[in-house]
């Protein structure tokens, strides 16, 4: 069985689209996911399954809509895929302040035209690098003050996205190894 991470977009933010983690865990248990755990209230799941990422995403999105009455985008990565993303981060080096690093997970790889068009944007001193289904972000200040948001990448790349800070990314990987 493969360890997986599911990352939900936009739940429990500002009192909207509220889902208790115990309810989310129970919902995943009912979907047949095994060894389900949660990490913080923003919609991070660690679990075991042999189903494809796409199948898991679709099943959970449908179950959330049916049980809670609103749509929540879900992105699933395997523990191995997350390790690869961590290894590829061009901003994560020995000198990096991890409070300035973020990873935007893309639902799918953007088409070349959208990718190339997005690369023309420059919001220095904030920086980003698109690599497959990952967007690595360095923010010189606070993430919420940056123009490099989920909405920016969704609008420019034309794919679903959700972002986690680097501390959360590292913790999700650590939890997925157990």
Automatic annotation (TrEMBL):
Q: Which PANTHER family match?
A: BLL4334 PROTEIN (PTHR36439), DUF1697 DOMAIN-CONTAINING PROTEIN (PTHR36439:SF1)
Listed name of the protein: DUF1697 domain-containing protein
Q: Which residues cross the membrane?
A: none
Xref: SUPFAM superfamilies: SP0830-like
Q: Which organism is it from?
A: Pontibacter silvestris
Reading the lineage from the top rank, the first entry is: Bacteria
């Amino acid at each position: 069985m493969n360890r997986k991470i599911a990352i939900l977009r936009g739940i429990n933010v500002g009192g909207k689209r509220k889902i208790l983690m115990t309810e989310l865990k129970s919902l995943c248990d009912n979907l047949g996911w095994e060894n389900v755990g949660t990490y913080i209230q923003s919609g991070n799941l660690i679990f075991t399954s042999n189903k494809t990422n796409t199948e898991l995403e679709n099943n959970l999105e449908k179950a959330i809509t049916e049980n809670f009455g609103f749509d929540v985008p879900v992105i699933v990565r395997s523990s191995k895929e997350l390790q690869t993303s961590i290894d590829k981060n061009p901003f994560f080096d020995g000198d990096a302040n991890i409070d300035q690093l973020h990873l935007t997970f893309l639902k799918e790889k953007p088409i070349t035209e959208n990718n190339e068009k997005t690369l023309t944007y420059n919001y220095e001193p904030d920086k980003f690098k698109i690599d497959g289904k990952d967007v690595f972000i360095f923010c010189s200040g606070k993430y919420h003050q940056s123009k490099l948001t989920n909405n920016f990448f969704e609008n420019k790349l034309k794919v679903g996205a959700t972002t986690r800070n680097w501390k959360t990314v590292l913790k999700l990987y650590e939890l997925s190894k157990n």
